[in-house]
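Hey all, sorry for the wall of text incoming. These are the two entities for the joint prediction.
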Amino acid sequence: MKGYAGKYLLVNLTSRKIVSKMLDEGMAVNFIGGYGFGARTLYDYVPAGVEPFSPDNVLAFWTGPLAGTIAPVSSKYAVFARSPLTGFFGFGISSGGFAFELKCAQWDGIIFTGRSDSPTYLFIDDENVELRDASHLWGRTTWETEQMIREELGDDTVRVAAIGPAGERLVRIGNITNDRNRQVGRTGMGAVMGSKNLKAVAVRGTRDVEVADPDGLMKFSMELNERLQGPKTEKYRVYGTPANILIHNKLGCLPSYNFQRGTFEYAEEVSGERMLKTHVRKIIACTNCAIACDHVNEVREGPYAGTVASMDYESLNMLGPCCGVRDLNAITKAVEICDTLGVDTISAGVIIAWAMECYEKGILSSEEVDGLDLRFGNSEAMLEALKKLCLREGKLGNLLAEGVKRASEIVGRGSEKFAIHCKGLEWGAYSMRSLKTSTLGFAVSIRGADYLRSGSYQVDVRGEVDRLKLDYSRGKIVCDGENLYAIIDSLIICKFARGIFSSVDELAKLYTLTTGIEMTGKQLLLAGERIHNLAKCFNIRHGASRKDDYPPPRAFEEEMPDDVVRGAKITREEYDEALNGYYDARGWTREGIPTAEKLLQLGLEKEAEEIAKYQVSHELKLTGAK
Amino acid sequence: MALKTKMTERLKKIIVCNVDKCNGCQICEFVCSFTKEKVFNSRKSRIFVVRIEPFLNLALTCKKCDDPPCVRACPTEAVQRLSDETIKIDEEKCIGCGWCVEACEFGVMRLNLETGIAFVCDYCRDIGEPQCVKYCPKDALRYITIEQAARELSKKAVKSIVQELLSACITTI
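and here's what came out:
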């Protein structure tokens, strides 16, 4: 079994005991790596009733079999825990050089349990692993922490994944940063890390990464690298994902003013095309990536001159148009604040946009927003609110730090209707009412509102389906997308490369060349389905059912005002039909619960047994309701 | 005679990295460690990507210096300069003292972390073409003479001046 390191770390932060565990071959074949290993870990380690910030929650870092090898776009790792935002399956994927370094240190992953009684960080120096004091790092930004750890270890090649002050303060959208610009962004993994008093993980790996067929992998990888210079990745290479601003604006699916609208009158000013001319100073790549998409902005004039931050479409849209903000300088500053203090830019933008709508509607008083003039488009107020959120400062900061679901429940007064989230995770930069297959994909996602679990926005944006309608058949599109993405997230490779593979068989080929384990595309997709079902079982255990798979009320109750999609909204009937289609495609009940039959078919025996209990309790509830 | 030697040396081909194109992907390091050692391990690469946050990325390898400091520094004559101007390490003679490492102005001479023996880029002399150059996805790496690199820079400068002049003309019109 090559490619894998074959072992992982189990670190108990309470007892400070560190154990090396062998990676089981069955685990490798059935769950591949990354997302699959994370699903296995969460299911096995986090029983019902374990609160996200409890020491009993786990925090697991996993790489995939390809990390550390020459397989393209493979230096990726994922972090898992029960999410403090959703209460369900939490995870995020990051790239940079951290995963590659961890594999070179010959570890597939790290599972943290317990809670340290004082700030600590883990230093992995090949086989030497130790918990070190992090008192002097507590309160430091992510960038400072990375720098200080490298200085104290006397090696600037050490890779560091760290939380910022937001994670320390249990801001629920706290994230984890490595290599300065790369984040495990979503579902509050940084907050869980903070709850464990774990400031950072630092890694130095110097060992060889062995693969089954080095010559074959080299040859295939170089061929793929060449494809990566072709048309399928051009968007990412030239303008980066901000190219989406004008594309989405034209289609009326660019969320602006807290998703009230799908166009932005100043879209041109915040476009990728404009940004490339006025802000992008350098485009950099993650380790072993032949695409290079990371557009690093520099603010050249005005009050934020000198600000440097990496900009992508989601950050740009949520902190820009979604807040009505059109000043690229301020948006770059906002991303810098998020990255250094350590919060997810997407969630942050949606939360502040919600607060702005509350303020404009008179739901939040001036006193409740700490005296800020929190109107849409006021970039200074947006930045102030953002800092307060990250540091839990004042009334406003403490409210917003809870995430948009909890904040809207605290405020009430009808503000829940325009809190744009699903399962507690804030919605990404795809309008709900003018991209309906996308919306189904977001809403059924196991980690909450999420475009990255199925990529179902693609059929809408490309015009392969009528994006303004929903029907039964969309369920299958989402389901197939999820199975494929589960594989991509388990191997783990970058989704930006997805277009260069002629079929899933090529992904299987990468897997076999690396590991020596025979695998077909069909088997891989089955593993994808297995992984996704396992993650779903975790959610069922923590109370998920059909009710959690709906978009927020704005999707159903308000019509889009933009000319290009005027009047668009989702009807309950069409959504229910599409959701039924999804559950049927999955082989789940119409309550959204995996059937024993499906789980057994996927080889998930003990899960089938447990989930059957929930099945019964749901049926009882339903009967009771009648 | 001395003059002739110098001229030839300025026309020698070296690996040149374009700082605008280099994005720090490290693919050259992977390709190198695979080519030279048949393993994936960037610490066994003979080319090194230097990243200085937030903007600077540049890959560095042996510059084929005149009168190489690494050769001068070696107390056991393990570090030798061949007639094609590449450096060769005699592994039998190398005692792993690291003086060549200290002497190299560019930090591209290293000691193998496992064996302690010095290693450096040999321009893939057995293959005939540096593999890092061949596989650099952004063509940031080139195997050219310093003269050629200079000529290309001149061309680029002239192009951008002409473009500026042209756009100025258009604006005036």
